Amino acid sequence: MKMINNISRNIVSGIVAPLALTVGGFNTSAKAQAPGIVGIDHVGINVPNLEQGVQFFHDLFGFEQVTKLGPFAMDANWKKNFHIHDNAGAVTVVMMRAGDGSNIELFGYTPPVGSTVQPYRDDISATHISLYTTDIKATKAFLESKGIQFLTDINAGMFDTEGESWVYFETPWGASIELNSYPNGKGYEKQKPAVKLWNPATAAQLTTETYNKAFLQSFAVKQVAVWNETDSVARLPKLKEIYQNDIAFFDEEGSTNGIASLNARISKLQQQNARFKFSLIKIDNSNNMVRYYWNYGPASKPNLISGMDLIILEGGKIRTLNVFLDKLPPAAK
């Protein structure tokens, strides 16, 4: 009975924050001081060669060019207002989609008469961007294989940033960019703060993708099979079939990012609740948001526990999964 009493703490399908506050890791409760503000739309970067900049971000990171404007001539008032050199020529602007983060906007000036000397890090308005990766060692190794120079070794965070790894590399034009990763969250999250930092690894979009009943039923069967598979090695290819590589999973124990971490979480659940099995109650959806209702328990009482997974699909695979409990067993006397 001790195991039953501890189920609310041990099972992977735990209580999460109310949907009104968190969906896929997004905190929607913050109130903007300036009316209408939602968040950062894009970050602007000057590059000495626009084609080189676009190719760099596309070929190494998969960022996609979406819009291109220009070249535009700039009059004297424009140059004065935006602190641009008097002898600057035309400007061309490219906007790129940068994965599940802020867009980036590349500015190319012709001719490039601005300074090519990088500002000191402590200069006013000196900036850098950071790219989130689910596997910082693999990303660093890949970039090094492409000739990218790194400025530091991989560093480990501490205190509030415990669990985070970071490293800096240099672009072909001399700017520094950071890689960072915290697949199991940061130290400050242990305090369960009212507001959490935005995390691109947990970002997901509601779309107009539609899935018919046949797909949903097949999907549900695979989901049950994955969570009931006791062999972690055999489970891994099944996970990859229905989960995105950067799956963001949320339950009462916290957040988990990536298939490997989720695989470990399932193994932990099965070790804590031997001979328990999941079974499907029902599944439905609204576009790419899916509600998956389940039972969990031993053969003698298969509906001992029940709950619902709120899932967002991307390309037919799970991108985020938030777990809600509907029923727990009564505490033993």
UniProtKB/TrEMBL annotation:
Cited Pfam families: Glyoxalase_4 (PF13669)
Keyword terms of this UniProt record: Dioxygenase, Metal-binding, Oxidoreductase
GO terms, biological process: L-methylmalonyl-CoA metabolic process
All copies of domain VOC, residue ranges: 39-182
UniProt source species: Filimonas lacunae
Gene Ontology terms, MF aspect: dioxygenase activity; metal ion binding; methylmalonyl-CoA epimerase activity
Name by which UniProt lists this protein: Catechol 2,3-dioxygenase
UniProt-listed InterPro entries: Glyas_Bleomycin-R_OHBP_Dase, MMCE/EMCE_epimerase, NTF2-like_dom_sf, VOC_core
PROSITE patterns noted in UniProt: VOC
